[in-house]
Structure to design on (325 residues):
């Protein structure tokens, strides 16, 4: 999969931040999965951990209050690329950070 | 059924004898019956025909005939024999080709013994065994096919199959996927199996087309 260097750098930095977050909140040895999907018009990169997960209400509140520093930094990078970030989490389901970045 | 005792018969195919011996011993100890072993693809085909095992544990990097070709040949000759691929990591294209050739499951060689036994039991029962890596490979293959010029028989995933494959590729267990999508475990299994099955049908059709186009179908007779 080919992306312009400037875009690739931001995506890599966002993924690194998401992995740092896993390390910090789930553990140094915690497994993490990385799925990269090329849809032609956009690229989806998902970082998922199998940690305890976050209940829906708590996640939204933390985001609103600006308490999820990592999420903000990921969001900042991806928004600059014209993309979106979605965080999906539930108790027992782990946490997914899904980045969607448009091509071009 | 002829297997009144329900003992699952297995053939172990690998070109490393120490590995084959160890897997055979472990499987026997776990209550499986290892009816044959083979060290290359050609031997695998011949011994499978002679012993008709329920499950073939198939390595992919084999001398003479490749594991993918052996998988295809055994599936064609013995529709009741199921193939479980046991491979090293980094053999992505081979694993995908083996699934297209009819393998029902895939497990990494780094799997724990209990995971292997469970996968052999599942395979014998006709249920797919898959890893996040295999789900990712299937996703990539469907997307690659989608970029090719449209053919009427091009396989496509349903929305549900796509959703299930994506979640498994993200490392979720079938049980977690079932909870997330409010489906039964069995339904999740079926979605993955259908995604694999459609690629197998497509692959068979492509091979037939290739044979006809190149005149291979008329060569021997």
């Amino acid at each position: 999969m080919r992306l312009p260097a400037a875009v690739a750098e931001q995506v890599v930095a966002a993924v690194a931040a998401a992995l740092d977050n896993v390390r910090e909140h789930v553990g140094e040895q915690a497994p993490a999965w990385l799925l990269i999907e090329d849809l032609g018009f956009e690229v989806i990169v998902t970082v998922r951990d199998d940690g305890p997960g976050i209940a829906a209400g708590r996640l939204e509140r933390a985001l609103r209050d600006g308490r999820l520093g990592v999420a903000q930094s990921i969001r900042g990078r991806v928004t600059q690329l014209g993309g979106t970030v979605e965080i999906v989490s539930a108790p027992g389901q782990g946490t997914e950070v899904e980045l969607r970045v448009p091509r071009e | 059924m002829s297997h009144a005792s329900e003992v699952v018969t297995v053939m172990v195919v690998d070109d490393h004898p120490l590995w084959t011996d160890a897997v055979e011993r472990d499987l026997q100890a776990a209550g499986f019956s290892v009816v044959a072993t083979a060290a290359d693809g050609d031997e695998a085909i011949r011994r499978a025909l002679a012993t008709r095992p329920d499950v073939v544990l198939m390595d992919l990097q084999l001398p003479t005939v490749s594991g993918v070709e052996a998988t295809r040949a055994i599936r064609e000759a013995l529709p009741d024999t199921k193939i479980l691929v046991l491979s090293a990591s980094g053999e992505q294209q081979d694993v995908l080709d083996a699934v297209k050739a009819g393998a029902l499951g895939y497990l990494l060689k780094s799997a724990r013994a209990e995971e292997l036994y469970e996968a052999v039991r599942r395979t014998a029962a006709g249920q797919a065994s898959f890893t996040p890596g295999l789900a990712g490979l299937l996703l990539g293959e469907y997307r690659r096919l989608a970029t090719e010029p449209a053919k009427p028989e091009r396989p496509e995933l349903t929305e549900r199959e796509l959703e299930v494959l994506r979640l498994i590729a993200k490392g979720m267990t079938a049980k977690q996927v079932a909870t997330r999508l409010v489906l039964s475990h069995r339904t999740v299994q079926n979605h993955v199996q259908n995604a694999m099955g459609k690629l197998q049908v497509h692959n068979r059709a492509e091979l037939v087309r290739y044979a006809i186009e190149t005149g291979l179908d008329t060569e021997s007779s």
Observations:
- Residues 209 and 217 of chain B are 10 Å apart (CA to CA).
- Chain B has a mean pLDDT of 91.
